[in-house]
Write a structure and sequence with these properties.
single chain; alpha+beta; 4 helices; about 25% helix; about 25% strand
Length: about 170
């Protein structure tokens, strides 16, 4: 019979659980990883309903960075775990699609302050000055591409707007 004793038990195979279990295993710790769902990944998974596929919620892995300016997540995967994957950069941060005929639009919002302002101004004529002023006053000229709704990112450069934190991503 196999030895069923473990030095560590990780509950949940979302991104955090997978990373914790992988790091422990890479250091030689005997780990049991438990997940209630039928696939690992947490919010980094998708599901199909009919002919449509939906993401759980995740659309961005923060602090990856390009190969020439690796962020902490890429360093962890490559250096600590020896995982080398082919990553595909998504050129836009968000996409807004409205199908109501009175307000129909399909707008790609790209990374970077200037491109963000240009994207909004193209979709909403006459808004350039107001959007640029908002960015300058509220964000302080930071290049923003992540929204957090908790204090988990308190050590990152950010502007606190109540519970929402707008975070500067140094790798873009």
């Amino acid at each position: 019979m196999a030895d069923r004793s473990y030095e560590a038990v990780v509950v949940g195979a979302g991104n955090g659980g997978l990373a914790a279990a992988a790091q422990l295993a890479a250091k030689g710790v005997k780990v049991l990883l438990l997940e209630q769902h039928n696939v690992p990944g947490g919010f980094a998974t998708s599901f199909v309903r009919g002919r449509f596929e939906f993401e759980g919620a995740m659309h961005l892995i923060a602090d990856m960075g390009p190969p020439e300016n690796r962020g902490s997540v890429r360093e962890f995967l490559e250096d600590d775990l020896g995982v080398h994957l082919q990553w595909f950069e998504i050129p836009e941060a968000y996409r807004l699609i409205q199908t109501d005929p009175a307000h129909a639009m399909n707008v790609k919002i790209h990374y970077g302050v200037d491109r963000f302002v240009n994207d909004i101004a193209s979709a909403v004529p006459g808004s350039r000055e107001a959007v640029a002023r908002y960015i300058a006053e509220e964000i302080g000229h930071h290049e923003c591409c992540l929204l957090y709704t908790s204090d988990a990112a308190a050590d990152l450069p950010c502007v606190d707007l109540g519970r929402t934190r707008i975070i500067k991503n140094n790798n873009h």
